[in-house]
Amino acid sequence: METIVLDIGETLVRDDRHWASWADWLGVPPHTLGALVGAAVAQGREATDALRILRPDMDVEEAYRARAAAGRGEHLDESDLYQDVRPALAELRAAGIRVVVAGNGTVRAGELLRALDLPADLVVTSGEWGVRKPDPEFFARVAEVAGAAPEATLYVGDHPADDLFPAAAAGLRTAHLRRGPYGHWWAEHPDVVETADFRIDALTELVGLVASASAASVASGVAPEAQGETGVRRGVLRSVRQVY
Questions:
Q1: Coil, strand, or helix at residue 122?
Q2: Are 93 and 107 in contact (CB under 8 A)?
Q3: What are phi and psi of 197, to 5 degrees?
Q4: What predicted TM-score, i.e. pTM, was given to this entire model?
Q5: Burial code of 41-74, b = ≥16 C-beta within 10 A, e = fewer?
Q6: Nearest-angstrom CA–CA distance, 47 and 213
């Protein structure tokens, strides 16, 4: 593997502040919104459906703009990062791996992330690209900025439908991260187990994973991109946005 691309929400960034701020805006207890988010996750629905349960007529994008205009827009600082983010990314770069952060987020989110000066070669959001996951065009853009062949690029994320399945369909290698509501709830689903090239519990596992994969390819005498695991073990890429 030459490049590792990482999702943002619940991969690098905790979503606690995000949902707490929405609860405050809507005037409901944080645990109420949190429980509704959990219900949406368990049903394979969009987490933002929780907002529409509380406010059926809500236009989420319009509400986001209203919050920003009221001085209650997005905020992101060091405390929002998971503790393994900086050490993991720094180790990967030290090992000669190109590190890219690319996930769903607003233009403002991209600005806030870059202000944190993460050890990454590129930080970009869907808002800046004008296309969101799981749209195939998003992963076509990922392949463009990776600077490596798709089979030498690993996409890491927690969400099966937004991260794992479309990245695999695009020919990228994939690592499913057991983190956040989607990552934990769907970790053992057969489609996730079948599709993911790797399954991890922390970003710090990535360095050892890269080393092991490289050693295995050298020992076998087969280039990583020629190994069957990278491109054909995909199973049925069903969306988890269904009730199983």
A1: strand
A2: no
A3: -70, -35
A4: 0.88
A5: beebbbbeebbbeeeeeeeeeeebeebeeeeeeb
A6: 34
